[in-house]
Amino acid sequence: MSEDLFLKIIAREIPADIVFENERVLAFRDINPQAPLHVLIIPRTHVRSINDLQPEHDELIGEMFRVAADIARSEGHADDGYRVVMNCGERGGQSVFHIHLHLLAGRDMRWPPG
Ligand code: DGP
Fold first, then answer.
1. What is the rounded distance in angstroms from the CA atom of residue 57 to the CA atom of residue 2?
2. What is the atom index within ligand 1 of the atom nearest the CA of 92?
3. CB distance 32 to ligand 1 below 6 Å
4. Residue 19 lies in a domain
5. CA of 56 to the centre of ligand 1 (A)
6. Does ligand 1 come within 6 angstroms of the Cβ of 97?
7. Is 102 a catalytic residue?
């Protein structure tokens, strides 16, 4: 899968169902949803994976989690609960190399994850 896929969504070169955006982050519905609500929260700036995070990204990562919580709340899942996941690398299940936080809600989550 293209490394630049999510940059293309940010640039509106690929359509996406965007649920939230500001100057720093974008959130859109996953094309292959694994739960009734499945949204990806991404930074506008390109960071390849968790392995590439720098201290300058700390605030950005915090904002991504807060945006996930805001979306979960606005979609009615805050009280029932939900899961946020960030995959890293091939064995971690990462297929798009532009960091993204998965927000999954609307069903019971299993543990441990597969
Ligand atoms: P991961 O496997 O953690 O790298 O998650 C990548 C996710 O990106 C996966 O759940 C499917 C989603 N995805 C891939 N291509 C597209 C696309 O073109 N549009 C949207 N909305 N989601 C995509």
1. 23
2. 3
3. yes
4. yes
5. 25
6. no
7. no
Q: Which tokens sit at 110?
A: 């299993």
Q: How many CA atoms lie within 13 A of 110 on its CB side?
A: 5
Tell me if 67 is assigned to some domain. yes
> pLDDT value at position 3?
53
CATH number at residue 84: 3.30.428.10
Residue among 96, 97, 99, 101 to mutate when testing ligand 1 (max atoms within 8 A of CB): 96
Q: For residue range 15-33, what is the model confidence (pLDDT) as tens digits? A: 999 999 999 999 999 999 9
Beta bridge partners of 82: 105
Percent of the chain with pLDDT over 90: 96
Considering the domain boundaries, does residue 35 fall inside one? yes
Q: Which domain does 81 fall in, by range? A: 5-105
